[in-house]
Amino acid sequence: MTQYGMAIDLKRCFGCQSCSAACKMINNMPKDASFNVVYTKDDTDYSHPGKAVAKGDMFYGNAGGEFPNAILSYFPVNCQHCSTPSCVAVCPTGASQKDPETGIVTIDYDVCIGCQSCMSACPYNVRVAMGENPESWLDIVTGEYDAPPHKANTVEKCTFCKNLIDRGEAPACMDLCPGHARYWGDLDDPESNVSKAIAGRETLKYLEDAGTKPNVFYLL
Predict the structure, then answer these.
(1) Segments in 43-123 forming alpha helices (H)
(2) Whose CB among 35, 96, 107, 119 lies 3.0–4.6 Å from 158's, allowing a Cys bridge?
(3) At 6, which helix (H) or strand (E)?
């Protein structure tokens, strides 16, 4: 069995937004939709980096502290691909699923009815509701040829770029991070990049007290 997961080094992330841009391009994301959000914080309390923002919005904080001890930190957030996903538990149609072979949480857009129950249940605010007519920035389709199409009146989320994984590649956000702040692989394999990155490091799991058992680790 495989449990794919990711580690994000908060000491290496410098808030460049490349992960967000790569995700939007490779998935041909509609306007005002993102699977990756990088919160800019003026403190180092990571218990809830989105606490000062409206759901779905990005927060640009001001530097905290005083020179020479000013503080500015970044906290990237995407689907945590939980071992006990609350979104799967509440989905009335079974559209939200956890793949037993990979541990990746996905949505079957042909089954999703857009009720947004999963959005209410997810503590991470990482799911996106598609409207009647998902509108792109460009008049042409961008991204990967096998990127999932966007369907009206459904809910979407990060899939760890499952289409790339199926081709033996890594998620776009990890692969294109210029700060090399992201690590990816099988958490059940001690020789994987993500397992080696976690070993011996102080780590944080985002909102772990929600009981979802997230599989994204933050290296402190």
Answers:
(1) 86-90, 117-121
(2) 35
(3) strand 4-9
